[in-house]
Amino acid sequence: MHKLTCQLGFVVAVAALVSGCCTFHEEGVAVKWDSVPAVVQATIHAHQYGGTVIEIVKETMKRGVVYEVEVKGPDGQFSEVTVAEDGKLLKHKTCKKSDKD
Predict the structure, then answer these.
(1) CATH value at residue 53
(2) Cβ-Cβ contacts under 8 Å for 23 (sequence gap 6 or more)
């Protein structure tokens, strides 16, 4: 019985991780556009494709400071743009509408 409970717990944990496919990370500090370096702003602008910036989170990681940006596109889809402090694009991921509901 104990083995079955452990396996079930593992399955639930994996399902929780997988279901968070496109959840926005909020471990950092929300920042305003004016406090984001110009080089980061340029990268965000280049990858928002006509969308609206919803939130910017500044996070300090092992590799340095990164900016995680949530963008809502003109079609209603959300995307996540992650940019290093030097302006390098680290990740751009478009989320399905159902991931944000």
Answers:
(1) 3.10.450.360
(2) 99
